[in-house]
Specification:
The complex is a heterodimer. Chain A is mostly helical. Chain A has helices at 2-6, 12-16, 20-42, 45-62, 72-91, 122-125, 128-139, 143-154, 159-166, 170-201. The chains are: A mainly alpha, B mainly alpha.
Chain lengths: 202, 85
């Protein structure tokens, strides 16, 4: 996904030099993705908007020192995700760290809810109510798992890009991704499972 | 190893499996197990569906015009606001 936009190549010289027109183009290109990242991480439009603005303010200030060791989009995602994690930290002090509390005991990931809800009609799965539930389910993930899931499975970054963005190893990204996906599968199974039971009763 | 132990041992491979990046020998082992284990088949199917549902982009998450306008204003880029729809 980001590689496509990356092709709309930017003049790094202009961006580093603070060229406003080029920066406007940069904002235009990435603002939707940054805002969506904010919505998924924070589940609050006002917080997402604040995070969006702060991200580009920081990016503008940091662009002169951008070294190009990662792609421009990965670099921007890194600023954005850190903003989001900082907002979460303010909400619940002492609780948020990308590194904490993830590698817990084996066995926790074992599936419990076994019910096939794949047969539900698309309109049911994509209804406004279902979407709302799905967004709330993401909020039940720890910020560490949430960040990995949102970048990889919603924004469509590769494992490597996700690892670069979060400054984690690819192995750590995979472990967290597995946990996040299995946890969401459990939550969605409970939610859609009720609908399967209802539709059979009807 | 009884069935439940096999299921639990294979859980760790599921994420790579649905991404198509699982090591080929493990993949064969997993698929053989799936043929005989309905429980794991359901887990794989619903896991795939979960990922697919979250991946669907929703138009409501496009940047709203007012959010975009306030962003450009905050960045002192209001001259460039009119240029695009």
């Amino acid at each position: 996904m980001i590689n496509e936009t990356e092709k709309a190549a930017f003049s790094m010289e202009a961006l580093r030099g603070g060229d406003r027109e080029e920066f406007a183009r940069f904002v235009e290109t990435y603002s939707t993705q940054v805002y969506r990242l904010g919505l998924k991480m924070l589940n609050d439009p006002q917080d997402a908007e604040d995070m969006l603005q702060e991200t580009f303010i920081k990016a503008f200030k940091a662009l002169p020192t951008f070294e190009g060791r990662s792609s421009l989009s990965t670099w921007l995602y890194r600023i954005a995700i850190n903003e989001a994690l900082m907002t979460l930290r303010k909400r619940r002090p002492n609780q948020v760290s990308v590194d904490e509390g993830v590698e817990t005991v084996e066995g926790e990931i074992e599936p419990r809810e076994i019910l096939d809800w794949c047969c539900l009609p698309e309109r049911e799965m994509l209804s406004v109510e279902s979407r709302k539930f799905m967004n709330e389910a993401i909020q039940q993930l720890s910020p560490a798992l949430r960040a990995v899931f949102v970048l990889r499975d919603i924004e469509g970054l590769s494992i490597k890009e996700t690892a670069d963005t979060l400054n984690l190893s690819e192995t750590a990204v995979k472990t967290r991704l597995l946990r996040a996906r299995l946890r969401l599968r459990e939550l969605l199974t409970v939610y859609y499972g009720e609908r399967v039971v209802e539709s059979k009763r009807a | 190893m009884n069935t439940t132990d096999t299921c639990n041992a294979l859980v760790a491979s599921l994420s790579d499996y649905v991404d198509g990046t699982l090591d080929p020998s493990l993949c064969i082992e997993l698929e053989q197990h799936l043929q005989s284990c309905q429980k794991c088949r359901i887990v794989v199917n619903t896991l795939r569906k979960t990922i697919e549902l979250y991946h669907e982009p929703t138009s409501s998450e496009a940047l709203p015009q007012d959010v975009r306008a306030r962003l450009f204003l905050r960045l002192n880029l209001e001259d460039y606001l009119k240029k695009e729809v």
